[in-house]
Amino acid sequence: MEDRAAIYLDNAASSWPKPEAAIEAVERALRDTAANPGRSGHSLSVEAARIIADARQETAALFGAADPLRIVFTKNATEALNIVINGLLGPGDHVITSSMEHNSVMRPLSVAHRRGVSVSTVPCSKTGELDPGDVRKAFTKDTRLIVLTHASNVAGTVMPVAEVGAIARAEGIPFCMDAAQTAGCLPIDVDAMDVDLLAFTGHKSLYGPQGTGGLFVREGLEERISPLMTGGTGSASEHEEQPLFMPDKYEAGTPNTPGIAGLLAGVRFVASQGVAAIRRHESALVSMLLEGLGAIPGVHIHGPADPGKGIAVVSFTIDGMDASEIAFRLDDGYGIMSRPGLHCAPSAHRTLGTFPGGTVRLGIGYFNTETHIRSALEAVSSIVNNP
Question: How far apart, in whole angstroms, are the C-alpha atoms of residue 57 and residue 52?
Answer without folding.
Answer: 9
